[in-house]
Amino acid sequence: MSTEAALLAIATSVAAGLMGSFAVMRRMSLAADPLSHVALPGIGVALALHHQPIFGAVAALLVGAFLVWVLEQKAQAATEAIIGVVFSAALAIGSLTTSGEDLIDALFGGGGSPPPAEVVFVLLAAVGIIAFVIAERNRLVVMIVSPDLARTAGVNVRRVDLAYMLLFALTIGIGLRYLGVLLMGALIIIPAVTAKGIARNLREMLVLSVMLAVLAAVVGAGVASWVQMETGPIVVLVAAGCFLLSLLLPRGSAAGTPRRVSSNVVDEDIARSKTPLNDVPRRTV
After folding, report:
1. Deepest in the core among 104, 206, 218, 272, taking most CB within 10 A?
2. 150-153 own/partner pairs: CB under 8 Å, 24+ apart
3. Which phi and psi angles does 255 have, rounded to 5°?
4. What is the CA radius of gyration of the chain?
5. Which domains does the chain show, CATH number per domain?
6. Helix, strand, coil shares of the chain as percentages rounded to 5?
7. Residue 192: closest CA among 170, 175, 214, 177
């Protein structure tokens, strides 16, 4: 793997670890996989126009995320249900516009050395995603606890939801080169699920999720190069292996015995993300 490719893999992993943590807490664990299939039509159009597939994929993902955001409000249905509808339509269109070897690369990742334009785009996108999570973390936490509470606190819930959905889609898009449509969702979700099981609060979950995602990407790329196999499946297997190993650890074992905090969700301690993960009420749709 070239230096550029390694840098992009690490940047993508950091973004995936951060976004995946909030996806898990928002009960969107199954959303990453179907949403990633929305990239197929964009990949087909980009290839037909002789452009880099990643740009077509990202464009299609952003449009798909916006449609999910709009339809979720119009249809009054769960996010996962709307994503399922958009996914089905996109998959049908994608199968018509992408074929042969291009389709295989789109599904499982093609690897190779990225062109300079893609390097710059992915790095800027990853920095933007990381900056968003850092800047909006407290708002996202309050929205998970209670959207009504967030509105009372002056948070524009719809706007933050839209920003999250668009950047969630962008996170999927920047990882398609190495993991493909079928596997990118795994790098977003598996490290976050693993971290949630062994962390005792959100801060620890974010750090562990990023570390596990980077570990999976680096180790997976090294093993894939050693055994001369595609990188994507190996990365996902490493992430899955970390999850299985985490089951041997006590829950919330990252820093000893989990602390207990006040159940008052308005408490500043919760807004600062110090609440034990298992004590945070789940958002209902």
Report:
1. 206
2. none
3. -145, 40
4. 19
5. 3-279 (1.10.3470.10)
6. 75, 0, 25
7. 214
Which residues neighbour 192 within 8 Å (Cβ) at sequence distance 6 or greater? 17, 20, 21, 23, 24, 205, 209
SS3 64: helix
Q: What is the pLDDT of residues 194-206, one digit of tens each?
A: 999 888 888 889 9
Judged by DSSP in three states, 229 sits in: coil
- Using a 10 angstrom Cβ sphere, with 0-12 exposed, 13-18 middle and 19 or more buried, the burial of residue 215 is middle
Under a CB-based contact definition with an 8 Å cutoff, are residues 232 and 109 in contact?
yes
* pLDDT number for residue 156: 84
Report the greatest alpha carbon distance in the chain: 57
Q: How far apart are CA 181 and CA 275, in angstroms?
A: 34
| Residue 63 exposure: Cα atoms within 13 Å on the Cβ side | 16
Spatial separation of the C-alpha atoms in residues 160 and 238, rounded to whole Å: 33
Tokens of 41: 């039509």
Closest CA to 31 of 178, 239, 236, 172: 172
Angle, alpha carbons 9-183-113 (nearest 5°): 35
Burial class (CB in 10 A: 0-12, 13-18, 19+), 138: middle
Contact criterion met (CB below 8 Å) for 220 and 241 = no
Q: What is the mean pLDDT of residues 157-185?
A: 84
